[in-house]
């Protein structure tokens, strides 16, 4: 396994750029943050709230609170860590407002986002969603296996090992621009397969 | 699919990895107002979902982005201009500098009296009372301390300082003036600390803390 820290410090994260744009008045940048994190935020809220509509409402409230508080966000922590805390607080406050008791202990951020290792998580799964996700995961694995070797290496070095483009270029002995193109082509191939599986499920 | 859309998607893919530059980000944001917006939004979400699937991260499928976007549209846009940020930093630096200057003057006043080197005695005697008035920002309004000011000297910051720091103050000022002065200094330090706490840049950390002020005369 490759040490991610070097790559992370080099390539950074788009979040910091997007947050800065929002702080300077560009709401479109916040839209990208919502699209990026809405699935994860709803998953966190779903640990506290069962009803699907309630999950959507609480998640929406979390994003609005985050937007309002964003001028005070100074980047001392990762944007997602900050957003995670807001989402958990919104969910707990929602339960209290409904005279329901929130869990005694906070749910660990990592635990709340992994598929395995938590029975309560499995109980909350919608069977159709779980099936669809399992199918997606299987399709993803198959399409990655079927990719040309240079595309497969580029995308797996990026997604599994967390390498920066520069590091991947070094590993694959090719220009950074080629890495960028290969990762994009791999993602487009995966996207086509995912779209096919989704249409089959629906 | 046009070639331009392909290029935009490739840029989006790089942005998802934090590998796009500022100009590319601006281009993507501009395109979010154009015809390519639905495609870009769909791909942006898809690239991140692919990542979540590969890494075994949990995500829910519901799409609340339109509702959030509508709610945010009713909110005022944030306006943290670079100029304002620079001004904010500058004002904090100015307060830090004024505190440091005040502290330097105070230490000089309190520290060296009775212990000043012979070379300073002449300078001290020749100082005119008008020098003590200073600009209004340096002292509380109406406060005209009868202090023995000195010029800054490397010698005064030398060996005698440690031994004299804990000595009771005896600079020829009245009790009321002393209390007034001490209260003003504490107030200034407190303001400085409060402002310094909000400074993100570690280079602008508080230059001093009110840890050791003489508690009483």
UniProtKB/TrEMBL annotation, chain A:
Domain RNA polymerase sigma-70 region per the UniProt entry, residue ranges: 33-101
Listed SUPFAM superfamilies: Sigma2 domain of RNA polymerase sigma factors (SSF88946), Sigma3 and sigma4 domains of RNA polymerase sigma factors (SSF88659)
Keyword terms: DNA-binding, Sigma factor, Transcription, Transcription regulation
Origin superkingdom: Bacteria
Keyword DNA-binding found: yes
GO molecular function: DNA binding; sigma factor activity
NCBIfam families in UniProt: RpoE_Sigma70 (TIGR02939), sigma70-ECF (TIGR02937)
Protein name: RNA polymerase sigma factor RpoE
Origin species: Gammaproteobacteria bacterium LSUCC0057
From TrEMBL, chain B:
The entry's keywords: Membrane, Transmembrane, Transmembrane helix
UniProt cross-references to Gene3D superfamilies, sorted A to Z: Anti sigma-E protein RseA, N-terminal domain
Key word Mitochondrion present: no
Domain Anti sigma-E protein RseA N-terminal: 9-82
Superkingdom of the source species: Bacteria
Transmembrane regions listed in the UniProt entry: 89-107
Pfam family of the protein (one): RseA_N
Protein name in UniProt: Anti sigma-E protein RseA N-terminal domain-containing protein
Lineage: Bacteria, Pseudomonadati, Pseudomonadota, Gammaproteobacteria, Cellvibrionales
